[in-house]
Write a structure and sequence with these properties.
Length: 424
């Protein structure tokens, strides 16, 4: 019997391009191409005698401080008050998970003066840390919107209908904004100094991206480099982010040398960052690969997934029935992340999932293969939602056999699958 084989390499590489499209990053189509070229970026060979051991973190993102722009509340169930529900922590613990990421908008506690922090508005984060301690759940504090940097600012409001209040300056080219970014992290480092790193970690900024200037984009379109990160523009952009990340790492370590620090990959959490290996910080990948499956009919993802995309299957096939993305494709795509253990760099997959319009049988098949790939990399993982369209509660996914759970609708088949994929 002849096995199906993936379609031609060009098509397969095009599919990789969508890996970088993250759950809340409707990237303009002009950026998708160059982001994809970063996915297989080479990294220096520097094997160690003892490979790094990745943390066994499994869990979810919690969104109560996700965005000060209320349009997002149409799609994600949060109250924008920072009051992370205690039930979330309890159920996460009871179901065997041990990690939450808090992707947050710094404007909740920072006004026009980026150096003034309202401590009353930070107290809900303190409460989340206490709930994590109470239920044995690690809390990862993440700036989803930082001074001068937010992936949401790449959204096209005319396509998505979502209003975004964009940053007025860039952390990459404005010295005062960079100082404010470092100030944020120095503040948190001082505030949580003494809290062990097995309870709290810092994620510098969600899905960093230096958006190409119009001239840079023209140059990329003309050159069509095989690998964006090894192009001159790519190296410059990675260098710009690395400079910002190192400044924040220095600010944190000045206050708390022992704090566990995480960087998302670049660009948009797609590829490891060799420039930051010397810092020893953990590196995080996000996977929504392939986006035609994970973001099928996603209302706010019109910037990178067509509304006319056919209903996906898994493995993903083209119109002729040829496989264009399967477990083997994913294994090749993410192998550079697995290789980091030999460089003594720890990894984690901090976001993943499928939006509510993807059929449940496809979701389960995709998770089954994807989590096996991450298990082979010895990496933990987290879904974008706990409650909501990427999660296990209240997804509103049609065709799902929901169970009642304390006033919520529980996707028990998905929960059982996730539980079966966690390493002890």
């Amino acid at each position: 019997m002849t096995q199906d084989k993936p379609a031609n390499p060009h098509r397969r590489e095009l599919l990789k391009s969508l890996t970088a499209a993250a759950a809340i990053a409707a990237i303009p189509s002009s950026l998708v191409h160059f982001m994809a070229m970063a996915q297989t970026a080479p990294s220096p060979k520097s094997p160690t005698s003892e490979p790094a051991k990745n943390p066994s973190w499994y869990g979810f993102n919690l969104l109560e401080y996700f965005s000060t722009d209320p349009d997002w509340m149409k799609y994600f169930p949060y109250k924008d008050d920072g009051l992370f529900p205690e039930d979330d922590f309890r159920w996460i613990r009871d179901w065997g998970f041990n990690w939450v990421r808090l992707p947050m908008d710094c404007r909740f506690w920072t006004g026009p003066d980026l150096f003034t922090i309202d401590e009353k508005k930070v107290e809900p984060i303190d409460r989340a840390v206490r709930l994590g301690e109470k239920y044995g759940v690690h809390v990862n504090i993440c700036l989803h919107r930082a001074p001068g940097e937010c992936i949401l600012d790449t959204l096209n409001e005319s396509l998505t209908g979502i209003h975004i209040t964009k940053e007025k300056t860039s952390v990459y080219d404005d010295a005062k904004t960079l100082d404010a970014f470092v100030h944020q992290w120095s503040y948190f480092a001082k505030r949580y100094k003494g809290t062990p790193s097995d309870r709290v970690s810092f994620n510098l900024v969600n899905e960093p991206l230096v958006v190409p200037t119009p001239q840079e984009q023209k140059e990329l379109d003309r050159m069509k480099p095989e690998n964006f990160l090894t192009s001159e523009i790519g190296r410059r952009h990675v260098g710009a982010y690395s400079r910002v990340a190192k400044a924040a790492v220095d600010g944190i370590r000045e206050q708390d040398p022992q704090r566990l620090i995480i960087t998302d990959g670049y660009p948009v959490a797609a590829s490891p960052i060799p420039d930051l290996f010397e810092t020893g910080i953990l590196q995080s990948c996000h996977t929504y690969n392939p986006a035609q499956l994970t973001h099928y009919q996603c209302e706010w993802a019109r910037g990178f997934v067509s509304s006319s995309t056919p209903m996906p299957t898994w493995p993903l096939r083209d119109s002729s029935g040829q496989i264009i993305c399967d477990q083997q494709t994913l294994a090749r795509t993410f192998q550079p992340w697995g290789d980091l253990a030999q460089k003594n760099i720890r990894i984690h997959f901090g976001e993943m999932g499928c939006y509510k319009h993807t059929p449940p049988e496809v979701v389960l098949a995709w998770f089954d293969d994807t989590l096996d790939v991450l298990r082979a990399l010895n990496s933990g993982w987290a879904l974008w939602n706990f409650r909501g369209p990427f999660g296990v509660l209240d997804t509103e996914r049609q065709g799902t056999k929901f169970s009642k759970w304390h006033g919520h609708q529980l996707d028990k088949p998905l929960l059982k699958l996730l539980q079966s994929k966690m390493k002890p």
